[in-house]
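Review box. Two proteins, two foldings.
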Amino acid sequence: MQKLIKNGVVSNDNWTVLKVASGPEVLQAAPGKAMIIPLQLWKDFREEVEEYTGSIAIWLDSNETVDRIGPDLHTLPLIALNFPAFSDGRSYTSARELRESLNYEGEIRAIGDVLRDQIYYMSRCGFDSFALRHDQDPEACLAAFKDFKTGYQSSVAEPLPLFRRR
């Protein structure tokens, strides 16, 4: 079972990310599993997805905006945001929008090209779990949360910038 960092500890990943899907028939191959499916599959085949016997969450690619989720946002236990390349930072904004503008309280997971050097900053934007790239050691990546004692900018975790905290 793949490992991930969740709430600051290494744990087993009980979710399976469905990267590519043409229709809901792919769910029948893994009945009862906890699946993270593409947003478009969830939107296009909503009725069939609701009949699935396992847990369902969605993932958004970096070019998809969180407002596409719609009114069912708060019924989702997890929203995964994809980083197709470590240099693509659009999902940072999506995480912050989910937490600050939409008041999403569920799990926000970083998936894709997730590296140790990013997870401190991701956590400041609202991510609370990190499915690291295959070549990253989750135990070693825990040290990233201690790279900095404080941040200058405001964040989801610390709404006031440093100059306002004095």
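Next protein.
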Amino acid sequence: MGTLTESMTRLCGEIVALRGARLNFVRDLGRDVADLKGEFRRAHNDMAQRSRAERLSFVKTLSHEVASLRAGFRKAHQHMARQTKAERRAVVNHLKKTVSGRRREFALDLAGAHRVWFGPTPAERRAQAEAERRARVQAEQAEAAAERERMAALAMAQEEAARHQAAVPPKEEKEETGRPGKKKGRDFPAPGDPQP
């Protein structure tokens, strides 16, 4: 065999060996890529499950926080609503009292001005006349009652005096003898007598 044949044989053997190596390489590469893709798939599934669990946990925590925040807002809003309602009611009550007081003052002022300008109304005149009539009647009744009491007291006094006179015998008139132990004609004045 010649060198050319040897070279060709060797070249042919190298080509066959390289083809086999290429096939092995491609097969190994396919296997490695399939293993890598399988690992990627498994890692992706694991990561998806973990991230899904984390997302669910995050959403759950977030929903709890939002719910508690909304509950706090609701309580604060209710408290603020009650407080502002009470404050508004107090302001309105104060305003009503103030306005009613001023309206009353103004009405009294207007009524006074009307009375000064036009005089008392017929109803007021009638009421005043009725009050005066009642006062007169009460005064007359009081006088009559006082007179009746005075007459009753006088009658009782007269009856008492008559009973007293009937019980006591009449006294005989005695001569004036003066005081015992004193003389009729005295030489010195008594303490109550006028001095000469």
